[in-house]
TrEMBL record:
Name of the protein in its database record: Protein N-terminal glutamine amidohydrolase
Gene encoding the protein: ntaq1
Source species of the chain: Takifugu rubripes (Japanese pufferfish)
Family: Belongs to the NTAQ1 family.
Described function: Mediates the side-chain deamidation of N-terminal glutamine residues to glutamate, an important step in N-end rule pathway of protein degradation. Conversion of the resulting N-terminal glutamine to glutamate renders the protein susceptible to arginylation, polyubiquitination and degradation as specified by the N-end rule. Does not act on substrates with internal or C-terminal glutamine and does not act on non-glutamine residues in any position. Does not deaminate acetylated N-terminal glutamine.
Source domain of life: Eukaryota
Alphabetized UniProt keyword annotations: Hydrolase
Length: 213
């Protein structure tokens, strides 16, 4: 009985990315839909989930192991969005619908394979991370998809088949989430190192504890 309860403490939201609502180049909406699924189906406690916008002031953030990449070359996004599942019972999990890595995969693996390090990158490519509780994201995010239109009104990439996501207050606030100014918008903004220290804290603190005399 104890064994069963331990294995079900941190539930996997969806183990098959093919079951997720997905539209290429609309990562923010893909993650919103995944959060919505968890809220409606109660596949995991919503408070375990955080939405992570990855960007910087230059809108040039390299990520490796992306499906649209070529070999071991990074893809340079203007921004990217992933979902984080952090619980006390297990390692932090990353859900990235555009990644070649397992779904989900541990943050430790994602950090080493997809994020790597800022040390060898020019400062213009250093990543920042805006972390927003999933419930806050569901309540406040809105996009009219205007950022995906060309000047002549045609689509850069085909939009999702469902209506645009909006709130009573806003039809478009995507920029607020991509902006990495800590004084703007929802959530907290971290550097890469601080992000990893914060969300891999369990494993690093246990390692530190084991090193104590």
């Amino acid at each position: 009985n104890n064994q069963v309860s331990n294995t079900t403490k941190s539930k996997i939201l969806l183990s098959n990315r093919n079951d997720c609502v997905y539209t290429s180049c609309y990562c923010e909406e893909n993650v919103w839909k995944l959060c919505e699924f968890v809220r409606e189906q109660q596949t995991a406690p919503l408070e375990e989930l955080s939405v992570v916008f990855i960007s910087n002031d230059n809108r040039t953030v390299p990520l490796w192991k992306q499906k649209s990449g070529c070999g071991d070359q990074p893809v340079i996004w203007d921004y990217h969005v992933i979902l984080l599942q952090a619980s006390l019972e297990s390692d932090t999990q990353v859900y990235d619908l555009d990644s070649e890595l397992s779904f989900p995969c541990s943050l430790e693996l994602y950090a080493s394979q997809a994020l790597r390090s800022d040390h060898s990158l020019r400062p213009m490519y250093h990543r920042k991370f805006r972390v927003i509780p999933a419930e806050i994201f569901l309540m406040n995010f809105a996009s009219d998809r205007s950022h995906m239109r060309n000047p002549d009104g045609t689509w850069k990439m085909p939009p999702p088949p469902y209506p645009p996501i909006r709130t009573a207050e806003s039809q478009m606030n995507l920029e607020t989430f991509i902006n990495m100014n800590p004084a703007v918008g929802w959530g907290q903004v971290f550097s890469l190192n601080h992000f990893l220290q914060r969300y891999t804290r369990k494993s690093s603190s246990s390692a530190a504890a084991s090193a104590l005399p």
